């Protein structure tokens, strides 16, 4: 082992997963992070506060997507045997009102099956509406259980966590010669990258607290993505947008939106104009069709009228590198080696174990 002391920057899902895997593989690490995960999502740039989190690759670009997904799925599957990790599996439906081709990742999903109009039990907005699509068994890392479990495991295997915001100037003075960069959006300002390539994809979510959902509905045993068609719900680029539903141990999460944003010259966030009127939930505006489609599906499928329940809304920023995609590579910096692991878009949980295994390979191979 060339480097036996390693520092990981960032305490989100990727920092913790890399830290745990390196510790388990015999390396000594410490992790420095500005903030740690908490149950309240109050910082749209700290993405690990927002995922639902399904193990399914969306809004991400990398030529080795299926390889990373396969490795991640193996690791998450193994965690099904560890109930305290919060990893579980349920049926996930991807439903379309207009016929669609199955995605490239279809072959990677467990028990993948197509369905056509007339199949019983498929979530839909209204009775009799023609829908088609596919369903499979999705792995699901229940974030409020999984993130504290991951942290605990990292500490148990000897990892150390230091709460501190590192500056670009301080990086050269760190005693470790190997740095694993998992700072997500924090990378901007810390390390060199192509500023023109950096984008944020704003994603809205509606949150319904579990305690506010009548007991008999709380754990319906499925989740969905549902695309009604661009005439009903579209992204600002005009393409049909999907909505989603995930039941978690603390809440139901209803999404989604994909609104591209970038930093302007003065550092202000510039957003694409929204495609729809916003409806205000709590203090946050969300696209009206995102709320209405989910409301109608849940009523039609479960018989529950969510409009009668208290709810809140929020948004987070998926961090993408538009042209270059996920950055998973090592680069020298003075006498140090930096292994970058960021730009996971909407799939940072999904790819976390696959990326950590790649980081371990880079560490081992020097
Ligand atoms: C609305 C929404 C829904 C999503 N749903 C899913 C999903 O279902 N499945 C999925 O796989 N993915 C999903 N994602 C994407 C996923 O949340 C992210 O890809 C993932 O959380 C990224 O994790 P990370 O650890 O790389 O970065 P982050 O979670 O952003 O963590 C970065 C860490 O670096 C620290 N840091 C930053 N700067 C510094 C500094 N200067 N010094 C020290 N520390 C620093 C921060 O404090 C933080 O701890 C979703 C994202 C959003 C926004």
Radius of gyration: 21 Å
* Main beta-sheet strand count, sense and barrel state: 10 strands, mixed
Record field, number of beta strands: 18
Arithmetic mean of pLDDT: 96
Strand content: 25-35%
Q: What is the overall silhouette?
A: globular
Bound molecules: flavin-adenine dinucleotide
Separation of termini?
A: 8 Å
CATH topology of the largest domain: D-Amino Acid Oxidase, Chain A, domain 2
Q: Provide the low-confidence segments as ranges.
A: none
> What is the domain total for the residues?
2
* Helix content class: 10-25%
CATH architecture of the largest domain: 2-Layer Sandwich
Structural class: alpha/beta
What is the number of helices? 6
> What is the N-to-C succession of helices and strands?
EHEHEEEHEHEEEEEEEEEHEEEH
CATH homologous superfamily grouping of the largest domain:
D-Amino Acid Oxidase, subunit A, domain 2
CATH C-level label of the largest domain? Alpha Beta
Task: Describe the overall structure.
- With 366 residues, the protein is an alpha/beta fold.
- It has two domains: 5-82 and 145-194 and 324-365, NAD(P)-binding Rossmann-like Domain (Rossmann fold); 87-141 and 198-320, 2-Layer Sandwich (D-Amino Acid Oxidase, Chain A, domain 2), CATH 3.30.9.10.
- Helix content is 20%, strand content 31%.
- It is built from six helices and 18 strands.
- The protein has helices at residues 13-24, 65-79, 143-156, 168-171, 288-302, 352-365; strands spanning 5-9, 28-33, 87-96, 110-115, 132-141, 160-163, 178-181, 198-209, 222-227, 242-247, 251-255, 259-263, 269-271, 278-281, 284-287, 312-321, 327-333, 336-342.
- The strands form three sheets. Strands 3, 4, 5, 8, 9, 10, 11, 12, 13 and 16 form a ten-stranded mixed beta sheet that branches. Strands 6-2-1-7-18-17 form a six-stranded mixed beta sheet, covered by helices on one side. It has a two-stranded antiparallel sheet with strand order 14-15.
- Helix 1 packs parallel to helix 3 and helix 1 packs across helix 6.
- The radius of gyration is 21 Å and the shape is globular.
- The termini are close together.
- The model has no long low-confidence stretch (mean pLDDT 96).
- The structure holds flavin-adenine dinucleotide.
């Amino acid at each position: 082992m060339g480097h036996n002391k390693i520092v990981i920057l960032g305490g989100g899902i990727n920092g913790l997963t890399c830290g745990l895997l390196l510790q388990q593989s015999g390396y000594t690490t410490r992790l420095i992070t500005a903030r740690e995960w908490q149950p309240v999502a109050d910082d749209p740039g700290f993405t690990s506060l927002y995922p639902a989190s399904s193990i399914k690759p969306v809004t991400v670009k990398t030529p080795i997507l299926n390889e990373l997904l396969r490795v991640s799925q193996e690791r998450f599957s193994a965690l099904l045997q560890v109930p305290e990790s919060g990893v579980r599996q349920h049926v996930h439906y991807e439903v379309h009102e207009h016929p669609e081709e199955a995605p490239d990742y279809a072959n990677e999903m467990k028990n993948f099956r197509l369905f056509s109009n007339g199949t019983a039990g498929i979530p839909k907005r209204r009775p009799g509406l023609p829908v088609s699509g596919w369903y499979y068994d999705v792995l699901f890392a229940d974030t409020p259980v999984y993130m504290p479990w991951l942290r605990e495991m990292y500490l148990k295997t000897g990892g150390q966590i230091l709460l501190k915001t590192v500056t670009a100037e301080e990086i050269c003075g760190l005693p470790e010669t190997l740095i694993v960069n998992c700072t997500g959006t924090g990378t901007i300002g810390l390390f060199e990258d192509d500023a023109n390539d950096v984008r944020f994809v704003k994603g809205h979510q509606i949150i319904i607290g579990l305690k506010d959902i009548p007991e008999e509905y709380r754990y319906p045993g499925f989740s969905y993505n549902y695309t009604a068609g661009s005439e009903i719900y579209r992204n600002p680029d005009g393409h049909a947008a999907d909505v989603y539903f995930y039941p978690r141990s603390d809440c139901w999460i209803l999404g989604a939106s994909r609104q591209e944003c970038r930093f302007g010259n003065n550092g202000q966030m510039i957003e694409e104009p929204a495609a729809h009127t916003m409806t205000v939930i709590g203090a946050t505006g969300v696209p009206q069709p995102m709320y209405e489609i989910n409301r109608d599906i849940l009523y039609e499928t479960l018989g529950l009228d969510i409009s009668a329940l208290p709810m809140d809304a929020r948004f987070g920023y998926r961090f993408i590198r538009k042209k270059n995609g996920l950055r998973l590579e090592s680069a020298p910096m003075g006498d140090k080696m930096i292994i970058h692991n960021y730009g996971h878009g909407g799939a940072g949980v999904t790819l976390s174990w696959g990326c950590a295994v790649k980081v371990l390979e880079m560490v081992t191979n020097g």
